Inverse folding.
């Protein structure tokens, strides 16, 4: 997707702001002698930025405005290293709310809805992002946050919530609990705005069936506003990205070279109007593709496909690079298997082992099915794992992101 002249003008304003601020990226631009770009080719010569750059800038090295213009601080979780601190100006907060407004409109939300918000609050961007536009819209926000599933279910029933906002793992947990407790006819949910994790067609269908909703896949990340920079429409054929706020490139994860529309690669984002902490060519590690052509909904906003994983999700075993999505693709071939699985890596007697646990609600001979799945995995990745099929509900459920790969080799 070639950058437009209008977007190039906005990038030049960001370059000017960054150089003036002398923040980490402004210094990088000065060192490279870059004062602006005049073409798409020039844009591709701009240096990338990455998560480690943002960590190295801790605490406030991302700021591109004077402190008196900063009205809010957001942060990544910091679970895998130094947290990233992201400052926002008043305009950034308003712009983020406007993007969320579009998301809710695409999801069919109106001022007559009651929106139960289950993602986390605090420094993380999720909960407050989902709430940002609800009140401006005139809808009713129910800011539950994560956990306390008993109260979540109680409020769904008692307050007759019509929209649920959640990460896919927690939406699945809620759907299973609704089914288990026979609450399906007692709730009034219509729509689900789901994001934060990769989730396949099976999980989507189980959530939709369990809660009686249609689902919309929302996209975003803490470093770039937060959730809400894009969402799927009712046709469920990709997520529309608000390209007046962010420019999306898809690049080869290994080389950083742009790939043609329609080919898979890594999302690289440039914020076009963000003031507090502008980012240029930020490598997200999320894997997807630009979907060419027009969407049936008629929206002009470009689309990216469902996130297929992360370039840094890869693990190596038996000398082979393996991505979790490769395992998911195999499991999706078997209708009798559920969407819930877990990969465990161990090192026994001088050799790596990979065990795959997957749930089923089927009744056929599990030993035969395990052997069939193991054989198909070998065809895809080159070695045979141990596959154990377990009953539905045996694998742990999470109120946060579900951990799919557990590496015990170095414990």
């Amino acid at each position: 997707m070639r950058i437009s002249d209008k977007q190039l003008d906005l990038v030049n304003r960001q370059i000017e702001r960054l150089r003036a601020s002398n923040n980490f990226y402004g210094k990088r631009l000065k060192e490279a002698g870059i004062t602006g770009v005049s073409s798409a080719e020039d844009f591709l010569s701009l240096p990338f930025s990455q998560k480690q750059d943002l960590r190295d800038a801790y605490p406030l090295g991302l700021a591109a405005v004077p402190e008196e213009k900063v009205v809010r601080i957001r942060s990544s979780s910091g679970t895998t290293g130094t947290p990233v601190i992201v400052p926002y100006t008043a305009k950034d907060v308003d712009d983020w709310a406007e993007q969320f407004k579009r998301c809710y409109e695409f999801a069919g939300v109106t001022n007559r809805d009651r929106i139960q918000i289950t993602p986390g609050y605090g420094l993380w961007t999720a909960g407050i992002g989902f709430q940002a536009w609800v009140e401006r819209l005139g809808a009713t926000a129910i800011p539950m946050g994560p956990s306390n599933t008993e109260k979540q279910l109680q409020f769904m029933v008692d307050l007759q919530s019509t929209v649920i906002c959640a990460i896919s793992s927690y939406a699945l947990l809620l759907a299973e609990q609704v089914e288990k407790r026979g609450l399906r006819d007692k709730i009034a949910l219509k729509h689900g705005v789901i994001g934060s994790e990769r989730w396949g067609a099976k999980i989507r269908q189980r959530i939709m069936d369990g809660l009686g909703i249609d689902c919309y896949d929302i996209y975003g990340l803490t470093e770039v506003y937060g959730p809400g920079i894009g969402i799927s429409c009712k046709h469920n054929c990709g997520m529309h990205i608000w390209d007046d706020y962010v420019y999306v490139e898809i690049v080869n994860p290994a080389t950083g070279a742009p790939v043609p529309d329609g080919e898979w690669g890594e999302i690289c984002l440039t914020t076009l109007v963000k003031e507090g902490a502008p980012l240029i060519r930020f490598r997200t590690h999320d894997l997807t593709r630009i979907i060419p052509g027009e969407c049936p909904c008629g929206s002009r906003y470009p689309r990216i496909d469902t996130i297929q994983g992360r370039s840094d999700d890869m693990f190596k075993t038996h000398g082979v690079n393996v991505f979790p999505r490769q395992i998911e693709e195999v499991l999706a071939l078997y209708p009798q298997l559920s969407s819930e699985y877990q990969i465990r890596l161990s090192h026994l007697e001088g050799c790596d082992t990979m065990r795959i646990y997957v749930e089923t609600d089927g009744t056929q001979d599990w030993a035969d099915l395990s052997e069939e799945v193991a054989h198909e995995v070998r065809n895809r990745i080159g070695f045979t794992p141990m596959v154990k099929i377990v009953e539905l509900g045996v694998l742990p459920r999470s109120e946060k992101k579900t951990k799919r790969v557990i590496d015990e080799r170095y414990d």
